[in-house]
Amino acid sequence: MMATAAVAGETVAEPAGYRMEEYRAAVPASLKGAKVVSTEEAIALWKDKSAVFVDVLPHDPKPANLPAGTIWKEKVREDIPGSIWLPNVGYGVINKETEAYFRKGLASRLGDDTNRKVLFYCMDNCWMSWNAAKRAVEWGYRSVLWYPQGTDGWVAAKQPTQRNEPH
User: Fold this and answer.
1) Are 130 and 147 in contact (CB under 8 A)?
2) Tens of pLDDT along 116-162?
């Protein structure tokens, strides 16, 4: 299957570092050290439960200091069933607390097994999953998969979703 960037008619070069801005834009067709998977491959991995699925879509929690009477509508995340949602770990720069949260979240599903398949996704044309997968490669994970179509590709393929909450 052609990568998202090629389908969009754009050629995006894989950067040496992390994407630092404009996270919703055409993505490259590759990620050094990781395998890019198509929707069909993601479905097969999900069905045979051979990979841990990690959603990295950002999430804004309810602000603690909202004025009285302010209405807050929590965003609902329909996810690939069985995924762990580790929001906000796909930015180009993450602080030490977010890095620790990311590492702990991965360990909660992978333990110390850096050889187990771990699939990162977000939405179509979202650099968050690319950044998160790149970070996992740099941390020594050896079976990193990147699904650039994310939940958009999953839903378009008429696959099931379930409501998820941040880990």
Assistant:
1) no
2) 999 999 999 999 999 999 999 999 999 999 999 999 999 999 999 99
Residues 6+ apart with CB under 8 A from 12: 5, 25, 26, 27, 28, 29
Structure tokens at 80: 């690939």
Which amino acid is located at 52 in the chain? V
Phi-psi category of residue 51: left, alpha or beta, with phi > 0 → left and psi -120 to 50 → alpha: beta
Spell out the domains of the chain, with CATH numbers in brackets. Answer: 45-56+76-167 (3.40.250.10)
Q: Helix (H, G, I), strand (E, B), or coil: what is residue 84?
A: strand
Q: Is the pTM value of this prediction over 0.70?
A: yes
Asked whether the beta carbons of 25 and 11 are under 8 A apart, the reply is no
